[in-house]
Amino acid sequence: MLWSVPLLPLLAALVIYGFGKRRLGDDKGRAALALAGAAIAVATLLLVSVAVTADWGGTYRWSSRIVLSLGMTSASAVFAIVVPLIAAPIIVYSAYHEASPVGDGGTARPPIGLVALLTAFVGAMELLVLAEDFVTLLIAWELVGACSWALIAHEWQKAGNLRDAAWAFLVTRFGDLGLYIAAAAVFAGTGSFALADLAQLDGWLLDVFVAGAVLAAAAKSAQLPFSPWLFAAMSGPTPVSALLHAATMVAAGIYLVIRLHAELSAVAWFGPVAIALGLATALVAGVVACLQGHAKKLLAASTSAQYGLMWLAAGAGFPGVALVHFVTHAFTKAALFLAAGIAERHVDSYSLNAMRLGRLLPGVAVAAMVASLALAGVVPLSAAWSKEKIITAAGHQASWLAVIAAVAGGLSALYATRFQLLAFGRGRHGRTSAASSRSGHSRAEAVALYLLSAGMLVLSLLWWPGIGNSLADLLSVHFPKTKLWELIVSLLLVALGVGLGIWAVRREVSSQQSETRTAMADWFGLPTLSARGVNAVMMFSHGLARFDDRAVDAGIRASARFGAWLARLGERRGEGAFDGATNQLAKGVDWSGQVARRAHTGQMHHYYTGIAAGLAAILIILSIGALL
């Protein structure tokens, strides 16, 4: 029965695409498209809820050694619920926010292909989080990657979109090799692909498995040095960015770490590596977000930073804290991306310095402010609770780790403040009047944003006494007890970050930036460095190709020339020699035949003479043999 959870959205995506292309034309089908996509997401959510309460499972025997299986753990249940819960308002938003051109007349039709792909993305992610063996996990992992590539390249007519989609795809594909290595190590050590058999793995194969899983998860969750692929992913439509960053593609990496935490932590080096990786990403991505002037790229860097904090919590031994922060971050980031998309529709740009839409869009501004304050870690909003638990988790390893984690939280407050004030602060220089002349957003887009903001407010109940402990018991996880000094330091740094954000916004008077700041805002020049590395590899490859042409292929070309020379020689002289030898052989056979015919005279005494001669020869041979 559990197979119905991923199959429902996957099959429904085909139906939406096939039916929509024939029936949903022009602008009249938006409501039907939004309703169909949201209904599939809600139906998936209901199926997951039933599966959790009824303890559903599912297996399919591929062969005697390979069995595809689905199951439900506390981590997979949370992810399976959050994915359609976040996807439903995003799909509604996409049906009204995006449009597909029809012909050359300037008309547009509902984004049927986009909604179908988003629905399929939900199904692929559900299959990933419910997988109980590595074969099923790899199938889902590939589906998620393929859907993300198609969604990023959805507007393929725009210059550079296909290139950016390919870059994001190839970077994550490089990390995907780690998952294949991990699966191979598991099969070599246990003779099975089942996740339940991981406890049997030990020795060097366990180290190989952990290394492969860390590589795959780090690439998917945009940890350093893979973080820049998130900027390339910004070429996709706004709903794609919202779903990809909040609950699907990027979330796959941290899900793998949370789901396999018991096996990963069995290796002594996993904890330090996860802490170092997560903390470095949180700090670097935080600085990048603080310097970014592009709304979606700021939020993308923020995503990398927040997932870095989740890695920090998992490395410190508290995967449950990472799980809760995933939930709070999903609502926060989805809402902020939708708000950025609405702002872009009004000013035709993602430049933060071109916005300042607070007076024009008061409702959107309030909803975005709730999400920005949550991202900043302002008490008593939801993301603040999980962020404080991450700082406490870091403090269980060392006090200085808690302080550095709090600094990363302060950076979150700084870039969240920058985003809110630049995007939805007070307008100036006539920007508000200019923006009001452009076509705005629909009510459905605003409602989708309001629903996500309301979800954040509901999750703020985590601050209510006793709710956290009840949640820990429900999920069978452990939350660290917050220390007073850590909370005070964290709140002070949040206040400092908000203050610095206000100060930074007041100093930003134009979209022009220095070359140094531009390089730092682009991941400290890491993409340029990567491009140079790629160019060096390509130059080396071209050198090898030239060596192959000149040295290796030279022998092959010489052999070909020698063969051609032999053919010409045979054509000139060999044919006559071969024909002469054949004629001589024929003459010799004819002569032998004539000689043989002479013995066949038909007279008996000739035959007796021959027999006598043969016997005499035999006697002579035998006599010689006897003497020897």
UniProtKB/TrEMBL annotation:
Respond yes or no to whether keyword Transmembrane helix is given for this record. yes
Q: Does the keyword Transmembrane helix apply?
A: yes
Residue ranges of domain NADH:quinone oxidoreductase/Mrp antiporter transmembrane in the record: 131-408
Q: Which GO terms describe its biological process?
A: ATP synthesis coupled electron transport; electron transport coupled proton transport
Output the Gene Ontology terms for molecular function.
NADH dehydrogenase (ubiquinone) activity; NADH dehydrogenase activity
Q: Name one Pfam family in it.
A: Proton_antipo_M
Task: List GO terms (cellular component aspect).
Answer: endomembrane system; membrane
| Entry's localization field | Endomembrane system; Membrane
Gene3D superfamilies per UniProt: 1.20.5.2700
| Membrane topology, as annotated | Multi-pass membrane protein
Tell me the protein's name: NADH:ubiquinone oxidoreductase subunit 5 (Chain L)/Multisubunit Na+/H+ antiporter, MnhA subunit
Origin species: Chromohalobacter canadensis
Query: What lineage is on file?
Result: Bacteria, Pseudomonadati, Pseudomonadota, Gammaproteobacteria, Oceanospirillales
